[in-house]
Amino acid sequence: MNSMNIQPEIGFDSKAFRRALGNFATGVTIMTAQNSKGEKVGVTANSFNSVSLDPPLILWSIDKRSSSYAVFEEATHFAVNILAADQIELSNKFARSKDDKYADVVFDLGEGNAPLLKECSAVFECERHSILEGGDHWIILGRVVNFQDNGRSPLLYHQGAYSSVLPHPSLNAKAATPAEIFPGRLYDNMYYLLTQAVRAYTNDYQPKQLASGFRTSEARMLLVLESKTATSKECLQREVAMPAREIEQAAEILVRKGLMVDTGHSYELTEQGVHSAQMLYQIAESHQQDVFGAYSDQDKALFKKMLKDLIGI
User: Fold this and answer.
1) For 14-31, how does the pLDDT look when each residue is reduced to its tens digit (9 = 90+)?
2) Which structural domains are found in the chain, ordered by start?
3) Which of 28, 40, 41, 299 is the most exposed place for a label (fewest CB within 10 A)?
4) How far apart are CA 119 and CA 135, in angstroms?
5) Rounded to two decimals, what is the model's pTM?
């Protein structure tokens, strides 16, 4: 196999080098900090990495030409906000040069008054440990003093484009099972078949939905509200079919994100919320086609009718 020797000399193709580095998929973070004067900064970065568990150390790098570096150098602490899959707009906002990147952004203040962004996949609050020379970048090491694990599917960056996490196709391969292992009587049991079908369908579909950055409760709410099958909050709980506390938490998050508004009697989607719901419907319909594409329209219509009859709608 031929390899290219990387030489820091005239003739080295830095653009080709950047493209080659782009083959390494990374997460996307927004690094935030605030100095003693109250000056807040935030930069989108994919250079984040773990260094040590004991002590808990992480690192990231910032361009020496960045106007934000002075605040990171002065601040006692900074935060690593690992973005969730639905936070592309936030990533773009902090990647651009703006006077006030925090305009209309909801955040809390953590250690050293570092801004902590809402609804991220995870957040690490770090005490500045040291700053190292790294060519045209400064390498900033931080000691983690606190963290949040919100469990949301993360936003990825690969070959210059945003991406999301999905299980590798090989993990979904189904091993052929000899028919004689399963008694025919069990496979004639409707309850058994329905529960196994739901399990199999969910196992393949749910990772695709979660890759959007929405939790199941949030996704269900968006889909139900877009379909306009729930005219009140009471109807919404029935249609979403999840505990009231889950629905309340999801509603709080979706309102904060500007995806829906609380009218008191019910919830209504905003234009951005409708767009998110349509994206989720596209994911659902694509998976539906993958599963049922081999069946005729008549077969699918009959299957839907049987399910609706069972549900009572």
Assistant:
1) 878 888 888 888 999 999
2) 26-158 (2.30.110.10), 183-311 (1.10.10.10)
3) 299
4) 34
5) 0.76
